Give the backbone structure.
Amino acid sequence: MRHLIKLSVFALCVVLMGCKTDPGGPPGTYSLTEIPLPGDTDGNAPAHRHLWWYGLNNTGQVVGTDSGNWKPRGFIWSGGSMQQLGTLGGDSSWASGINDKGEVVGWAQDSLGGSYPFIFSGGSMEKLAGLPAEAHAINNAGQAAGFESRGTWPRAVFWSGGTVRDLGTLGGKMSRAFAINDAGLVVGESETSNGSIHAFIWNGLSMYDLGTLGGSESWARAINAKAQVVGGAQLPDGTTHAFLWTGGYMHDLGTLGGPNSWAHAINNAGLIAGQAQRSDNIWHAALWRDGHIQDLNSLTPAGSDWILRAAIAVNDGGQILVLATQGNELGNPTLQIPPGIPDGASIMRVLLLTPR
């Protein structure tokens, strides 16, 4: 099923950069590598541990946040080596995005308890310009996107060359940015003049509404070099489906037979990673290629006891970052990762899937 929405004004505004990539599709099955958390020696996370905010670059480096000992700390995993990123002088930090140079962005507490955006590069963490904020994504030019805390309402912002820019809204009070491509195009979500939340794309000059799938709200979570955008959007019946926005149209990506789905990431070959409900309402990690959906669990090695719950990142080599559970450790079989954000329960583990 596809639902199409035309946005003709955007076609006049976007300037794209070329990008040559390797095919992103799976050749058959994947090998699985568990990303151990800082301090783990046996792969068993403490019961209170929570995992969230993950990024993956084209060299296979992974960033994220681990709340072991009740103090969240950002980390980077590279080639089997785990490194905690530290803070800006406070107790906690959160890592969310990484580019192909290994530069990481996120946010961290300072000595006074305020949370400020940072860039981690060359082994050191530096505060980004502006107010308390969350930096969620960074491109290969070192430009970043996220949102500032402005009293009650967050505002999407863009960092470049030591300055910060407010991206505005779609007519409402708030906006948040979650992804940026190498051309500097930013996507996220914003309140409209009627109070609904809609996905947006910002092209360096203006913010444009991507619409919905016939419902009231939508949320954008990723963008590739071709300005293809993915996220989740509501249908008239109130369910949420993963969408692909490309060429001015929003396409409904469907589900695995259940009512809802979400798309979290897209690579430059158009491979889309996310999650979808089956007919029994259980959430499984999902992969979309050329409009067709596949349960990622059907591509894991035979005999594996991992259950892949959500695919949250995909790189141009076809590697996929997933949240997973093992055996029967999932207490609630209909567990949903909160919409559009790979926030997780303590039982979630992190796996890197590599095409065989």
Summary: The chain has one domain: 8-355. Residues 42 and 79 are 18 Å apart (CA to CA). The longest strand covers residues 89-98. The domain at 8-355 is CATH 2.130.10.150 (Methylamine Dehydrogenase; Chain H).
